[in-house]
Write a structure and sequence with these properties.
Layout: E1 2-3, H1 9-18, E2 27-28, E3 46-58, E4 63-74, E5 78-84, E6 89-94, E7 97-98, E8 100-104, E9 108-112, E10 122-131, E11 145-148, E12 151-154, E13 175-184, E14 188-191, E15 194-201, E16 204-215, E17 222-225, E18 227-233, E19 239-245, H2 252-259, H3 262-273, E20 283-285, E21 293-294, E22 300-302, H4 313-321, E23 330-331, H5 338-354, H6 360-370, H7 393-410, H8 412-425, E24 430-431, H9 433-444, H10 449-456, H11 497-507
Helix pairs in contact: 3-4, 4-5, 5-7, 6-7, 7-8, 7-10, 8-9
The structure holds zinc ion (ZN).
Zinc ion (ZN) is lined by residues 295, 318, 322, 340-341, 344, 507.
């Protein structure tokens, strides 16, 4: 399905006249970055360094008007390139000149600049658009833009950006962001980074947000509505900005009792992961029907349903751990998802240890025994789970047990050096599971291939659990079948298990 829209006869004509003969070797950029799970996410032929997203939003009608300016650099001689975007576009300019554009696929915006872009050249791309985003469905009925009674929220993995700004929508191309949104007076805007300022005029208020560190497009977020805001500074000096919809009802208390712990928990996590990588931290709880969370950079999205059974600091620890494992050090490919979820879950194990609600070893033993050998849980390889299992329980739980197995293999001192050294070594960059393994081997001074193969890349229940040094391996019943499930020998359920389970289940509903 392909729809070609030439902006105007004039711009089409200028296209013909402007292409010099020397452009012969120029070719279109690829419509994707070749991600093994999502081949059309992102685009080839350029890299983005900055997004300037300027919006006007009317909550009463869900009308969104925008102008996004993208600073890009061509990585090949480009006759044409794509952006990922789902909304209706009215005009595109490249380096000041009108450009022809067309749409195709789920969210490909194909742009033909008036003059081709030589490899290494910089391009300023301006896209103007207007749409009602909640009515825009892609990928077979999915919309990332959710209206609320007083506004809207956009947060989603792996795709959400296309409902509010055009871009190179893949975690391997990160950029800084300025997000400026005009809303009716009395409505507030929450986004990533630091609130640089607000200004009101003629019944409208503009909010200017800035994320000054590289950010993946799926980690950009926007919430519009009426919020109670809390601002503070952590003991470590980091600004904290949290926002709670005024409409959270009976979940309001538990939400605040959890998310207000952000400053304390981010300082606590710094002890394991090294200095916090960004200039602000916080979370927001909008009034959407959701029990999910997402590690949107510096400003975590929490669905109110997360707090329907009381406070939940475990999920706050999980999402804050992602600020190091996922946001600062981002995936090179979606198949590397274990680098995000295994470690965020393991941070919950560490929090459980800290709270005396079960050690990481007890949790790992429990998970190992919890799923019988014939449970489909063991058929998923956390190191390459497949698109359909990207957010499955195995990526989180077996993924975290794999980290406990690493800890047992290299010993606590080396393990905690790896845990802290990796986010420092790779800060603001991207990585693969193989990169992590190479780093762990370098720090440990030994080969870890068997460990990674067994726990991350081999379907089936490993013959023994993550055995601590000096302890006997788990008995045969632990590796048994469903029939053995209720027989003795199963470790007692750690106190923290239920909350950890909740944080796993909630992630499954994203996208
Ligand atoms: Zn997560």
């Amino acid at each position: 399905m392909r729809k070609r829209l030439i902006v105007s006869a004039a711009s089409a004509l200028s296209l013909f006249l402007a292409v010099p003969a020397s452009a012969a070797g120029f070719e279109p950029g690829a419509d994707g970055l070749g991600d093994p799970y999502y081949p059309t996410l992102g685009n080839g032929g350029y890299r983005v360094s900055h997004y300037d997203v300027r919006l006007k939003y009317q909550p009463a009608t869900d009308e969104l008007e925008g102008t996004t300016t993208i600073l890009a650099t061509a990585t090949q001689d480009l006759s044409r390139f794509n952006l990922d975007f789902a909304l209706k576009v009215s005009e595109v300019r490249v380096n000041g000149r009108l450009a022809a554009f067309a749409t195709s696929g789920d969210q490909e915006l194909e742009i033909t600049p008036a003059r081709p872009l030589p490899k290494g050249s910089r391009a300023t791309v301006v896209v103007r658009y207007k749409d009602v985003p909640s009515t825009v469905e892609r990928y077979g009925g999915y919309t990332a833009w959710r209206r609320t009674p007083d506004g809207a929220v956009v947060a989603g993995e792996p795709v959400a950006a296309g409902w509010w700004f055009p871009g190179n929508d893949h975690p391997s191309d990160k950029a800084t962001f300025d997000v400026s949104v005009l809303v009716p007076d009395g409505t507030q805007v929450i986004s990533n980074g630091v609130l640089a300022g607000t200004a009101s005029r003629a019944g409208w208020t503009r909010y200017d947000w800035r994320e000054d560190k590289p950010q993946a497009t799926y980690l950009a977020t926007l919430a519009i509505g009426r919020f109670d805001i809390t601002r503070d500074t952590t003991a470590g000096g980091l600004p904290v900005y949290n926002a709670y919809s005024k409409d959270l009802g009976e979940n309001a208390g538990a939400a605040r009792a959890s998310v207000e712990r952000t400053g304390e928990l981010v300082d606590w996590l710094s002890g394991y992961f090294g200095p916090y990588p960004f200039s602000s931290v916080g979370g927001f709880v909008p009034n959407v029907r959701s029990s999910g969370g997402l590690e949107t950079q510096t400003r975590v999205f929490y669905g109110p349903g997360l707090f329907a059974r009381g406070s939940n600091t475990s999920v706050v620890v999980h999402e804050l751990a992602h600020q190091w494992y996922g946001d600062s050090v981002s995936l090179s490919r979606w198949s590397d998802i274990w680098l995000n979820e295994g470690f965020a879950q393991y941070a919950q194990f560490l929090w459980s240890e800290h709270e005396n609600e079960g050690t990481a070893q007890e949790l790992a033993d429990y998970i190992y025994a919890y799923y019988p050998a014939d449970d489909p849980f063991w058929s998923v390889k956390p190191g390459d789970p497949g698109e359909e299992n990207q957010l499955s329980a195995a990526v989180y739980q077996r993924g975290a047990v794999a980290i406990q197995a690493l800890r047992n293999t290299v010993g606590d001192a080396t393990f905690f050096r790896i845990l802290k050294g990796w986010p420092t070594e790779r800060r603001y960059g991207n990585a693969t599971v193989a990169d992590f393994r190479a780093y762990a081997e370098r720090v440990a001074g030994r080969r870890l291939g068997d460990l990674f193969t067994t726990w991350l890349f081999t379907p089936g229940k490993p013959a023994t659990g993550p055995v601590p040094p000096g302890a006997p391996a788990a008995g045969p019943s632990a590796a048994g079948t469903t029939a053995d499930r209720n027989e003795g020998a199963r470790p007692a359920e750690p106190k923290s298990w239920r909350k950890i389970q909740e944080a796993t289940a909630v992630h499954a509903e994203r996208k």
